[in-house]
Write a structure and sequence with these properties.
With 319 residues, this protein is an alpha/beta fold. It has ten helices and twelve strands. The radius of gyration is 29 Å and the shape is elongated. 31% of the residues are buried.
């Protein structure tokens, strides 16, 4: 059976009211219960379902005096109708978020070398200032985060920059120095004027491939004159493991200042040293899709986060 055409010649399309009525009947298989669920009279509900069958040109229900059954076509259309109604609900949520910033869901992606040290500040800010915001945090490496941002799985990223990625706008937050972490009694421990050139000959421990902090550390070493391809015999999946390897005497490593207290505060087998100015550093920023409908909301969030981070050992950057 062909679908009836509209006066303009184009096929008629089902209304949301018709889809909602049919979805309710498909769920309850009972007209009275379905009508009560969506606040519609039973005759209006029955009429909406009949109109939907007419528009689609298929029989959706098998009606008997005792029960209601879905036809084979009805089974397929019911699943798709629910998907359409869910999508419309998501659209309404997005519109509500646009009318009222800092409401609804915010899917934030964070790199592992930032998450443990900055998330307490981020979560406190959201709890105190944006209580209606549903913050969902995803900890992943940079490449995965950028893929999630590009495909709409994530809304906003917190990571090291520069990224140099088209269609991604960076909202700078701060810059922080790297600190040398070494085994206790190391000859560089306690110094505040370590030259970068000291990195040329040290046994350097790094994170595994894929971590941006590994690449940043290697860049620093190259700038210090360390030979390209100098062996790195040991690596770790996370900073906590890396620090334990240092405490065990396997070498030295570089930590960002925000990680220092958390990672070294409980281990008396470690010593730290600071580099002479200008110290090697990294920049941390929020990143969003260029042209995001929520760009003003994210810019305001970046401003608030900069203020919240002022108590950390970092240099706040302005956009």
């Amino acid at each position: 059976m062909a679908s009836p055409a509209s006066p303009g010649g184009r096929p008629r399309q089902p209304s949301l009211s018709q889809l909602r009525a049919f979805a309710a009947v498909a769920e309850y298989l009972h007209f009275r219960e379905a009508a009560a669920e969506i606040g519609m009279s039973q005759p209006a509900l029955s009429g909406a379902v009949s109109s939907l069958e007419e528009v689609l040109g298929v029989q959706l229900l098998e009606r008997t005096t005792r029960k209601v059954l879905l036809s084979p076509a009805g089974e397929r259309v019911a699943a798709r109708a629910r998907t359409v109604l869910d999508a419309v609900g998501d659209l309404m949520d997005e519109a509500e978020a646009a009318r009222a910033p800092f409401t609804g869901v915010l899917r934030l992606g964070v790199i592992p070398t930032v998450a443990p040290y900055l998330l307490p500040t981020v979560l406190r800010l959201v709890h105190e200032r944006y209580p209606d915001l549903d913050l969902q945090v995803h900890e992943e490496q940079t490449a995965s985060l950028l893929d999630g941002l590009a495909h709409g799985r994530l809304d906003l990223l917190l990571l090291a920059v520069p990224l140099g990625v088209p269609q991604v706008t960076e909202l700078p937050l701060f810059e922080e120095d790297f600190v040398l972490v070494a085994p206790k009694e190391h000859w560089l421990g306690g110094r505040g004027d370590i030259p970068r050139q000291a990195l040329k000959e040290l046994d350097l421990l790094l994170l595994d491939e894929g971590h941006c902090l590994r690449d940043q550390a290697l860049d620093i070493c190259r700038e210090a004159g360390r030979e390209e391809g100098a062996p790195v015999t040991t690596s770790a999946a996370g900073l906590s493991t890396l620090v334990q390897l240092v405490a065990g005497g396997l070498g030295v490593t570089l930590l960002p200042r925000t990680a220092l207290r958390v990672e070294t505060g409980r281990n008396d087998q470690l010593t730290t040293g600071y580099f002479a100015d200008p110290a090697p550093a990294r920049r941390i920023a929020l990143a969003m899709r260029s042209g995001s409908a929520r760009h003003r909301e994210f810019e305001e969030f970046a401003d608030a986060l900069r203020e919240a981070l002022r108590g950390l050992p970092v240099r706040i950057m302005k956009d």
